[in-house]
Write a structure and sequence with these properties.
DNA polymerase, domain 1, hpI Integrase, Chain A, about 50% helix, elongated, DNA binding, Integrase_recombinase_N, Arm-DNA-bind_5, DNA-binding
Length: about 400
Amino acid sequence: MNDYKLSILFLLQRNRINKKGKCPIRCRITYFKTRKIFSTGIFINPDNWNSSTQKAIPPNSENTILNNKLSLIHQQIDKAFLMLQILPNDFDVDDIYRKYKGEDSKEEITILGAYDLHNQKTKKLIGIDINKLSWSRYVESRRKVALFIAKFYNRKDVKLKDLDLKFIQDLEYFFKTELNLRQATVYRSIQRVKKIIQFAISENYLKTDPFHLFKNKKYKSEIVYLTQQELLGIEEKEFYHKRLEKIRDMFVFCCYTGLAYNEMSTLTTNNIEIGFDGKEWIQMIRKKTGRKISVPLLPKAKAILVKYNGELPVISNQKFNSYLREIINVVGIDKKITHHTARKTFATTVLLSNGISMEVVSEILGHSNITVTQAHYGAIVKKKISDELKDFF
């Protein structure tokens, strides 16, 4: 067979018989020794298929309709092939298939189109490999990139093949000046754009990374956590408003368990189990990483859980942080505190400052690996060592 010619063949999938005794007909396109097989959506009784003539037999009204459908598919593939031949760019069998389906060829795929393909694909993995929050960040990332393209290019989209170093440099500038994003947020936003480019490369829409020369500056923000004195001040403060008392209790509970908001808000008595040591442990699956976490139920955390009969009050993360700011102002702590500060406090003040090893902290927090823990808390451990050894210098 001439490699430059297109071969179209219909194949009967005899091992896939439906309840009506019919098999699906698939189409195989071959071009440049590369094949693409796809379903036609047509089913036939295997006894009525003539593979030599590529037609349904014997002649009757039903088989005539079926043969006409197959003929139309053949014609549409031929048309797609001819349309690609008159273009100056090289193409492959996947491009022929996309053209037949009415989709963009690789040369025509845009960055927003790549976002759409990525987001459609990963949406099916929600609850399996990723959580909805992680997925929604790529939806938001697409929105930001679309705003940038409209602002800087006065266009609706940009083809992947037209992307260059200047594009991402301008995008970074846009994030900083137009959207007023903090450096840490800019870094994460750029990383998501680069993730889409890597997706496009893996899907063969791009051959090389147009941003490979770009150096994304990682910003290490200082970890905000409560000291032992600050935590004690919150614990011992009396609140006359029940809403503040409840928020204080939930915050302190998380300071002694390290639970993130998602885990705290879904915690039930079913998550409390007797461990190997005969003591109570919180057993949960961390939504962010999908890892199982086992957290010892410390006395102060247990007392709060008992106070609320094993079911902590339910409140949105936004309202929680709003009420928490009131508490911080009343107690007199000059720090920007959110619910997540409780998790940082648990890792630093409750665990690391009391001699718990980094490996154990990593396991309790449910980090994907110890490198994540070291990146977050390594500096704190160094400071603790420095403080303890200062008398020797």
